[in-house]
Design a protein that fits this description.
The structure is a single chain. By secondary structure, the chain is of the alpha/beta class. The chain is 38% helix and 20% strand. It has a six-stranded parallel β-sheet with strand order 3-2-5-6-7-8. The protein has a four-stranded parallel β-sheet with strand order 11-10-9-12, sandwiched between helices. It has a two-stranded parallel sheet with strand order 1-4. The chain is elongated and about 70 Å long. The mean pLDDT is 90.
């Protein structure tokens, strides 16, 4: 997304507030997935919205923005830093572990404890943060604690990020206690569909073989949708592939209990979704 489009979204599509932030012990950087933290933090926390380009309805604090302008500070890092100075937290925390901005905060605020929690699968693919290890290593980035899936992924982050690694498994999966449930889905495919990404040829071959197997066994396939926006496109994609199979599609939404569905599946099928690895661990 180009710079001008980002500015347009922030200025015209965001929600606005002019309230001066109150002092809090804990500040959550990025509203994404913050509901998983609220259970443990009680009332002594604040949240600053980021990633406006992905979620245009996020809240922009005009009081902080004005403070930045008066100081002739115009970057988004300046905005977040000014917000932190007003809240004066002892701890800042995020569940977006591939956020380069968060890596820079420890340098600016060395006395504040910084905690990062892994939220998704990390790979060496070019769109992922780990592919930038050699470049990022030169930037002297740091967080105090990285709560991650396992030691192996923690060691990958330590190649470019000064941090203490604490393996905890999946924080989101652990949040949802597993209960004994009657199996509801014979075959559950955990989708990794993205409208802007073309499926790999080997994935299409796999789908065709899966279709043959399901037809032979006369089984229904349930698709666990992965795209929050325009789920109808995702459904059409799979419906076009599995033309002859009895298909059940569960769209992604905020109300969907993904882990309950995973626990209710007899056989989970995964290519490279985080939920697939979480299903295996559960």
């Amino acid at each position: 997304m180009n710079f001008l489009k980002k500015i347009f979204i922030i200025i015209f599509l965001s929600k606005k507030t002019f309230k001066k932030p109150k002092k809090k012990k804990i500040l959550i950087i990025n509203k994404d997935l913050s509901d998983f933290l609220k259970k443990y933090l009680k009332e002594n926390y604040d949240i600053i919205d980021t990633r406006f380009h992905l979620f245009p309805s996020r809240q922009l604090n005009l009081y902080i923005l004005l403070k930045c302008f008066l100081k002739k500070k115009f970057s988004f890092l300046d905005y977040v830093s000014e917000y932190i100075r007003h809240v004066q937290p002892k701890i800042i925390i995020t569940l977006i572990d591939n956020d380069l901005l968060f890596y820079k905060l420890k340098i600016i605020f060395p006395k504040i404890k910084t905690i990062m929690i892994q939220n998704a699968l990390r790979t060496l693919q070019k769109e992922d943060i780990l592919s930038q290890s050699k470049i990022l290593k030169k930037k002297n980035l740091a967080v105090d604690y990285y709560f991650c899936f396992n030691e192996a992924i923690g060691e990958k982050f330590k190649l470019f990020l000064n941090c203490a690694v604490v393996p905890i498994g999946s924080f989101r999966s652990n949040f949802h206690t597993k209960k004994i449930k009657k199996k509801k889905y014979d075959f559950l495919y955990i989708s990794v569909y993205r409208s802007h990404v073309k499926s790999a040829p080997e994935d299409i071959i796999f789908f065709k073989n899966l279709e043959k197997y399901l037809l032979k066994k006369n089984k229904t396939l349930t698709i666990l949708g992965s795209q929050s926006f325009y789920p109808s496109e995702e459904y059409k994609f799979y419906n076009n592939i599995f033309k002859n199979v009895n298909l059940n599609f569960i769209a992604r939404s905020q109300k969907r209990n993904t882990y309950k569905i995973l626990d209710q599946s007899n056989i989970s099928i995964n290519i490279d979704s985080t939920a697939g690895y979480e299903s295996l661990s559960r």
